[in-house]
Amino acid sequence: MTEIDWSLDGYDYELSPSRIAQNPAVPRDSSRLLAVDSPSSLQHRMFRDLPDLLEPGDLLVLNNTRVLPARLYGRKPNGPAVEILLMEERQHNCWLALVKPGKRLKLGSQIEFEPIAPPCQNSAADPCSCVPEAEVPDRRRLTATVIERDEATGGRLLEFDIPADATLVKFLDEYGHVPLPPYIDNSQASAEQYQTVYADRLGAVAAPTAGLHFTEELFSRLQQRGIEKTFVTLHVGVGTFRPVEVADVTAHQMHGEWVEVPPATVDKIRETQARGGRIFAVGTTAVRALEGAAAASGDFSLQPFCGQTNLFIYPGYKWRVVEGMITNFHLPRSTLMMMVSAMIGRSRLLDLYREAIEHQYRFYSFGDAMLILPTAKKD
């Protein structure tokens, strides 16, 4: 293992803003797929070709988390506007949130949140005379108080003023917005296009984007070919996106994220392995869930798990469960690039990114995908 594989500067690359996807492919499986089939070869395919690239008996492990409408807008009473992004619930109705501008939210500050405007019922030909939000009757009022600063993330702990028998999640449909990443700043995508078609466990602040490429029709074709699927849950939080700020990546500390690997999924993986099938993680979050559960077992064998994982995977990591991976193209200098490098090598990954850029692939959350087959895995 070379020192550069552990150097933050070794994970940099240049990308034109024009290559950052602002909208998802329609249909979802019409995105492109860079299939990496050996340490030296690749194929330029479409995501709908996935059944032809896998083998009967393979198993896809997908993250079924669903994105919260976790971005809220508000203001201090008679004060400036603020924006918050909910990250995780620390106590009942007390949430860690990233805030901007943070300097305006000192301890004890109160925030009054603005509800989403109801759709106007007037026709385009009729000037809108909707009642202003402040005058809409029977709207629940949502406020929060800053009670603590979180040094690890730079965020704030917010205590929401909600009846004891209620939860903040119940208010989010009325107040929250689905939080597209900041590099998606000119999108016409609907909120549902930032959810996987199988998302059913509410709790993430970002989508497991490798799963956005799947359609029900594609799942049907995979099943017909004998390729099965199972699910884990990892509620994507600040751990996935927190920037690496140390020159030696091995010194980076991951923030914990909530994971559930249920017994049925463990059984399915064991059955697949016993008959010689291969385990493919769909997305880096599914990788973290599986490998994190194995790390928590004590003997590194996969066991059912429910709890926090702060596993950081970078070159030199010894794989326990995952044999292949489907993943999108990630931000420079990110822990996600380091994870993929742990499977195929940092130099190889950068070569593949250059190939993708040269062939006009679309990058990041709404972008195209990469399939890493076990035959491409670095020894």
Describe this structure in words.
The structure is a single chain. By secondary structure, the protein is α/β, with parallel strands linked by helices. It contains eight helices and 17 strands. Helix 7 (335-344) packs across helix 8. The protein is globular and about 60 Å long. It starts with 31 loop residues before the first strand and ends in a 7-residue tail after the last strand.
Strand content: 15-25%
Main sheet attributes: strand count, strand direction, barrel closure: 9 strands, mixed
Distance between the termini: 11 Å
- The residue ranges in which pLDDT falls below 50 over 5 or more consecutive positions are 123-138
Helix content: 10-25%
- Topology as a string of helices (H) and strands (E): EEHEEEEEEEEHEHEHEHEHEEHHE
Question: What is the topology, as strand order, of the major beta sheet?
Answer: 2-1-17-16-14-3-12-13-15
**Rg, alpha carbons:** 22 Å
Oligomeric status of the shown chains?
A: single chain
- Residue-averaged pLDDT, rounded? 91
> Which structural class fits the helix and strand makeup?
alpha/beta
Total number of strands: 17
Task: Give the SSE map.
Elements: E1 32-36, E2 42-46, H1 50-53, E3 59-63, E4 65-67, E5 71-75, E6 81-91, E7 94-100, E8 110-113, E9 143-150, E10 155-160, H2 169-175, E11 201-204, H3 216-224, E12 228-234, H4 238-241, E13 257-261, H5 263-274, E14 279-282, H6 284-296, E15 305-309, E16 324-328, H7 335-344, H8 346-358, E17 369-372
Parallel strand pairs: 1-17, 3-12, 3-14, 4-11, 14-16
Antiparallel strand pairs: 1-2, 5-6, 5-8, 6-7, 7-10, 8-9, 9-10, 12-13, 13-15, 16-17
